[in-house]
Every structure is written in C-alpha cells, then in structure tokens.
Amino acid sequence: MLDFRELLATAFDALTRNKTRTALAALGIVIGIGAVIGLISLGESSQQSVASQIESLGANLLTISPGSTRSSGGVRGGFGTATTLTTEDADAIEDASISSVEAVSPEYSSRYQVTTGENNTNTTVVGGRAMYADVHSITMSAGAFFTDRDVENSARAAVIGPQVASDLFGDTATGVGETIRINKVAFQVVGITTSKGGSGMQNQDDRIYIPLTTMQKQLAGVSYVSSIAVQVKEKANLISTENEIGYLLLERHDISDTTTADFSIISQQDIVGAATSVTGTLTALLAGIAGISLLVGGIGIMNIMLVTVIERTREIGLRKALGARRRTIIMQFLAESIILTFSGGIIGILLGYGISIIAAKFLDLPPTLSWSAVALAVGVSAGIGILFGWYPAQKAAKLAPIEALRYE
Amino acid sequence: MMIQTDRLTKVYDLGDVRTVALNAVTFSVEKGDFLAIMGPSGSGKSTLMHIIGALDTPTSGTYTLNGREVGKMNEDQLAEIRNREIGFVFQAYNLLPRTTAMKNVMLPMAYARIGRTERIDKAKKLLKRVGLGDRMEHTSNQLSGGQQQRVAIARALALDPAIILADEPTGNLATNQSDEIMGIFTELNTQGHTIVMITHEPAVAKYAKRVLLLRDGGIVSDTRA
C-alpha cells in the first residue's frame, strides 16, 4: 500500500497527463450534480417562499369555515355557502377559555366596487374586529388600524392595502384621511398596511379592512360570518385546540354526528403542507430527471477509466513488478476516479448554486443553497467514483504482471 | 545459496497444445555470483526469468530465494518478494513515462512504505552512484537510453534486493552505452551484489562470471569463466 499522500500525488499525476480528457469526463459529473443541486435548491426556495407567504397571513392559525348548504332535495351547495357560523360562535369560543387560544377573530369578506371621485377598483373587503391585525400579522405603514370602539360603533373606518392605495390614489402611501366609497357607502381611510406581497386573489396588498359590524349591517346585510380565525399560542397545541373547538361548535350547533358537521376547521400547517407538497413532488420529479444525467456522467467516468486501464497496461505491469499489490493498484485507480468525480461534484455544486441564484432572481424567489442537497451531491459524486471506478480498477488489478509487461 | 531450484518445470496448457517451457531445471546461484543465462528464443530463458523474478510460478519443482520458498507463494507474498528481494532491469528500461528520475527510483520504496525523507535521501544517493547526480529532476523522456537504463538500475537497487535480475539490459542500447551499463553491473558485482542476467549476446555474456546455456527448456551447459 502506498501512503495517502503518495496515492493522491500518483492519481493527480495520472489525471493531469491528459487534461482535456479528464476535463471532459468530469464535465458529465459537473452537469449532473449541477442540475440536481440547482433544481433541488430552486424547489426548496419556492417551497420556502410559498410557506412564508402563507405563514405571513398569521402564525399558528386555525380557520373555521361554514360547511355547505344542503337543500331538502339533497342537493349540496358549494363549500362555505352555509350561513351557520355566527359572531356568537366566535364569542363562545373566546368565553370557553380554552387555555391554548390566544385570540378569536370572526370575519366576513366579500368583493365590492370601491371608488373615489376619480378612480375605482374592485377588491376584497374584509370585515373584522380590532384584533384582526394581530391575528393576521398586519402592520401599518401609515395611520392606524381601526379600534374596538370603531367596531362597537359600526364606524365607517377603512384600512386599505398599499395596492388599493396605489389604485385609488396613485401612490402606495397616500390615502389616510381621504374618503372612499365602498359599494356606494362612504368610509374614511384611517390607515394603510405595509406590503406583504402575493399575487392574484391571494394578494394581501389588494385588501380593505373595515369593522365587522359595519360590514354586516351596512354593506352585506347579514348576521353570519364567513370564517372565524383562531390564533393558538403554541404550534404544538394546534391539533388539540382544533379538537376542543370542534366539540364546542358541534355542541352549540346541536350536532352529534361529526360527519354531518356544518363547519370545518383547517390549520395553517394543513395549507402549508398541501401547498408545499405540490412543489415538493415537482422538485423530486425534476431532480430525478437530473439524477439520470448524473448516472450518464458516471457511465462516462467508467468508460474513460476502462480506456485508461488499457492504455496503461504496461505501466500497471511495471508497478506490479516493482511490488505493487492488487489492493494498491485498485486503490490507485479508485483514487483517480474518485478525484475525478469529486472535483466534478464540487464544481457542479457551484454551478448548481449559480443556476439557482440566477433562476431565483428571474422567478423572484429567495435564493437558497440546499445543504442537504450539497451533502447528498458530495456523497453521491464520491459514491459514483467508487461505483463506476470499481470495475476498471478490478480489471487493472487482475492483470498478470508478465502479460502486462509484454503488452505493446 | 541465494537461488536454489529443484526440477523446476513450467508447462503451458493452451487447450489442445501442451508446451513444456521448462523441463526439470535444477541449478543454484551463490551470493555474489554474476550469472548470464543464454539460449536461443524458445529455449525457456524468459520463462525461467519470470519464475526467478517471482512474476510467475512453476507448474512443479521448487524455487528457493534467499532461504524462502517462492514457488508456492500467493499473489501478495509474490508482490512482496518482487518489491524487496528482486531488482528488475528491463530491456526497454520501463520507467514511468513523464516522471522524474527521482520519482522513478522512489517508487519501489513507496510500495515498501518507507518514509518520504528516507526515500528522497536513498534515491539521491543511488542516482549519484549511477552517475546521474545532475539529472535527478529530469523526466524519463528527457533522458537518453543509456541514462534511462541507469535510472532503472538505481531503481533496482532501491531496497537492497537479494538479486538484480536483468532481462537483456543492453538490448536497446548502442555499443558504447552498452559497455557503460555493463561496467556498472560489473562494479555492482564487485561490491557484492548477486546478478542474474538474461542475454543472447555473447559479447555481453562475457562480463558474467558464469554462463548457463539453455535449449528446449533444459540446461545444456554451465560454464564458469
């Protein structure tokens, strides 16, 4: 056996003897590892982005939604069409003093036409209580959120998102003190929220918040709510709290069979899980395809190592004549293929990281380097070196010294 | 006795054809001897050299080198014998390509796991001894044939082997370089090294103290100068 330093030096000598070939063989691994790292990192950053967007709607939330209506003919209405959930339900949950409940927020939302003298927009208007801001992690960039007193008095106070401010007043920071008309009812703008991002129907910036009482009495003309958000103190208590609230509401609604419940409760974790599992599956699929290119790269390494063994038959014979054992020859060739795949792997990681940074920039995602993917790539590339270097190394080690010395 | 063989036989069985390359060859070489093995091609001298060099094992018979029975050793033991007990000098020099003279001489010592500083010291000493003190960092392709063979001799001496085994060491060299190499061998022999050399040139065989003539796998004559 050679000592480690000698082994590495010998392998480096051999690899630098034909630089172009070495570089091309390593390129297969570079591309394979780069693709795997790039795609996994990109997938992880999109998962993180989805998760953080959902988390930004409020931490540790349970959302109670009404169930569907059921007509006498058995025709089932859409999800959330029932009108069974009320502010009294919300108060009951609060009064039940469930120790893990932090806050209860009954809400009613609907889309309305909103106008000023010059501009108009169509947006989601949410009616809530003052604690809505805390429960949904809403912060203000200008003015203040409406107060409990506003809710008691059914005040016509409106807090608008920066998108609404931009649509109505041409600037994301302008509007406090102005009057807007929601469905022809005049409201005074009391505050503007800070931007949260998001897009489409989920755009948190394209919202107007008004007191729940004002919403129910003056805009919607209803007495029920469209959802109740419950903030739980500890993440660990989400499920137990979900169950407690569930039983409480079943009792209040006089339902004994849980399958016929006229409401449903989902936790933030469920939403995050559902949303991220989709991107997770996609990421795994893409990484799998990238993995195939890695496999092809590995076969390229094996191919080049086989050629090398044949080219160096005489050298192997000489080494054996000078006292190299089988193991020594195996180690020498394995060292070469491992160095080849390992260095390819390192460059591949850098390439993959570069790809994920550039792609994240274009897709407006936070750039992430998936460390688990890096660990995997380092392991896999070294593993490929061993796996695909083993057969050529065995072939080299099995050469009979006389035959190898004679080889021209 | 450095080398002792008893009815050494090698049979190549290639399916239909059975070739007897060596037929019960018995001879011995004492320490400090300089033996030339001669014979026409097909006489079995290469086969004999392979067995003496622990590159191959006999079909039957025994071969004892420096008191150890080599004929029945396994592959790793043979590798150790080649490493420690035999210094090879080949016709085609067989240096590692594009590798310095120093690294070539250090290679057998690396396989013997000798420390790096000791390897460097020994290799320098040996290269000076064969007259290449000024060419130690030259790579093999920067050296002439005669110089390459001198590196090979230095490499053969690296682990103070029991015998130096030379296979047509001057076969690729011009006469003047050939004389230089044979001069080195004679000098090494004078210093006490045991040398076994295969050659088909009578002029080269003259340097040896003793000539073994082979024909058809058997010894025809064994003459001492």
Please give the alpha-carbon distance between the first and last residues of chain A: 27 Å
Task: Indicate the low-confidence ranges of chain A by residue numbers.
Answer: none
Mean pLDDT of chain B: 93
Category by helix and strand content of chain A:
alpha+beta
- Looking at the chains present, what oligomeric state does this protein adopt? heterodimer
Task: Pick out the low-confidence regions of chain B.
Answer: none
- Can you count the helices of chain B? 7
Please report which band the strand proportion of chain A falls in: under 5%, 5-15%, 15-25%, 25-35%, 35-45% or over 45%.
Answer: 15-25%
Average pLDDT of chain A: 87
Helix content of chain A: 55-70%
Most residues in contact: chain pair: A-B, 22 and 26 residues
Note the main sheet of chain A.
6 strands, mixed, barrel
State the secondary-structure class of chain B: alpha/beta
Order of strands in the sheet with most strands of chain A: 2-3-8-5-7-6
Shape of chain A: elongated
Q: In which order are the strands of the major sheet of chain B placed? A: 6-7-8-3-9-10
- For the secondary structure, the number of strands of chain A is 10
First and last CA, distance of chain B: 19 Å
Taken from the alpha-carbon principal axes, the silhouette of chain B is: globular
Write down how many β-strands of chain B occur, each being a DSSP E stretch of 2 or more residues: 10
Total helices of chain A: the number is 13
Task: Give me the secondary-structure topology.
The complex is a heterodimer of chains A (408) and B (225).
Chain A: H1 4-17, H2 19-55, E1 61-66, H3 87-95, E2 101-115, E3 120-128, H4 132-135, E4 140-143, H5 148-152, E5 157-160, H6 162-169, E6 179-182, E7 185-193, E8 207-211, H7 212-220, E9 227-232, H8 238-252, E10 263-267, H9 268-311, H10 313-321, H11 326-363, H12 371-398, H13 401-406
Parallel strand pairs in A: 3-8, 5-7
Antiparallel strand pairs in A: 1-9, 1-10, 2-3, 2-6, 2-9, 4-7, 5-8, 6-7
Chain B: E1 3-14, E2 17-29, E3 34-38, H1 45-52, E4 60-65, E5 68-69, H2 75-84, E6 86-89, H3 101-111, H4 116-129, H5 145-156, E7 163-167, H6 175-190, E8 194-198, H7 202-205, E9 210-215, E10 218-224
Parallel strand pairs in B: 3-8, 3-9, 6-7, 7-8
Antiparallel strand pairs in B: 1-2, 1-4, 4-5, 9-10
